[in-house]
Amino acid sequence: MPQIPEKIHELTVGQLSARSGAAVSALHFYEAKGLIGSRRTTGNQRRYGRDALRRVAFIRAAQRVGIPLATIREALSELPEERTPTREDWSRLSAAWRTELDDRIKQLGRLRDHLSDCIGCGCLSLETCVLSNPDDAFGERMAGSRLMPLRREDQDS
């Protein structure tokens, strides 16, 4: 992995890509979505502050656990722009996601435990499916294999 000398305070998109492991196109995407920022040189080239390395690492780690980009952007907006975020900054942000991650873990556990039933089942029944309809939450409102609003003519019959 290429090392960046301490005296360099800004990185080109290629340097940021090489150090972070993110593709240049991903970095451009992150910037377009407001997750990272850059300044433009007089030659219109992007330059990223060194703190972008930590931000990109945070974005990629959050994406790996399924955090939506909008949530990541919201979290990053709370970080200081005048300094590189500290461990405490990152801890504060990630603590807010703990409940969401616990819920995802519970859903994945349920999927794991019932996956073999679903693969061969073919029932497409929301009434009995423990994954799509835990505790028959939709059974009181509708029947059938799809969660679609009833058409007006269906309601009148």
Detailed description of the structure:
With 157 residues, the protein is mostly helical. Helix content is 49%, strand content 5%. The chain has seven helices and three strands, in the order βααββααααα. It has a three-stranded antiparallel β-sheet with strand order 1-3-2. β2 and β3 form a beta hairpin. The chain is elongated and about 60 Å long. The N and C termini lie far apart (68 Å).
Task: Describe the structure concisely.
This protein has helices at 13-20, 24-32, 51-64, 69-76, 87-95, 98-121, 152-156, and strands at residues 10-11, 39-40, 46-49.
What is the number of beta strands? 3
Helix content: 40-55%
Number of helices: 7
Sheet with most strands: 3 strands, antiparallel
The assigned structural class equals mainly alpha
Mean pLDDT: 77
| Morphology call | elongated
Oligomer: single chain
Amino- and carboxy-terminal Cα gap: 68 Å
**Residue share in β-strands:** 5-15%
Strands of the widest sheet, in order across it, are 1-3-2
Question: Radius of gyration over alpha carbons?
Answer: 23 Å
Poorly predicted residue ranges: 146-151
SSE pattern, N- to C-terminal: EHHEEHHHHH
